[in-house]
Amino acid sequence: MVRRGINVPRKARSVDLTQVSEWDDGNFRRKDDYLAAEEPLEIRIGAEPLSVTMRTPGHDRELAAGFLFTEGLIQRRDQIVTLEIAEPRDGSNRGNVIEAQLTSEAAPDFAKLKRHFFAASSCGICGKASIDSIRSRLLAAPNPDFRFDAELLITLPDALRESQDVFQRTGGLHAAALFDPYGKLLVLREDIGRHNAVDKVIGWALLEGRVPLSDSVLLVSGRGGFEIVQKAIVAGVPVVASVSAPSSLAVQLARELHLTLIGFLRGRRFVIYAGEQRMAGKTQKV
After folding, report:
1. Does domain 148-280 have CATH number 3.40.140.10?
2. φ, ψ of residue 224 in degrees (nearest 5)
3. What percent of the chain has pLDDT over 70?
4. How much is the pTM?
5. Exposed/middle/buried for 93, CB within 10 Å: 0-12, 13-18, 19+?
């Protein structure tokens, strides 16, 4: 069933094939190799450009919806009237422009916008202005009653890796995944930018009417940065885990807004940087 105002997505090319030379113990050989695709995506509101992000094509409407939501331009799914691939004006870049039509209450005043957004695939939207704007939005703390078992948590990275189809072929993508309270994988998205993968996941949840994600765990590959924490808080996610380290700003924001933030989730070990009360199961202080 297609939701009103949302087009059926085109088949995106998330992988490119190229010829490379491989050096292996003194021997050269030519071979085919897969690369993760990277292309710009422009997000418009009406005809006005809002953001350009470098992303891996695929699930672009989810990416746009997640971006609009986590950056505070919309607060609810019903504020998106349409979300469509825009026809190129010059015959190029078809599929690389998403145009959103918003309700009048959500439509931004571009004359008053301090800046347009530019997001690089490596770090997303960064800087003091972004941090101040997040804190000024009076975000609510995530579900304080949610609990998640530690023995279940350590099984999630394997589930993440097993579902990373494009990563298995290219080795060059980040992933974000949502799990329910019983450890069931709800959705996984891959992208060359970890913040884009998170926006795709949250955009999926928004378009499916699942926000707030008050009984979910968000797991990300790589590190848990500030932007990932703020996007999770906007979506109401109570637990964020990553296989690598969080940043200092991510820890600070998680502690301020009482989100459970976990890093170095590897094997049978992880580190809780904030919100340890949500981790159920036996604990022993040493």
Report:
1. yes
2. -100, 95
3. 76
4. 0.83
5. middle
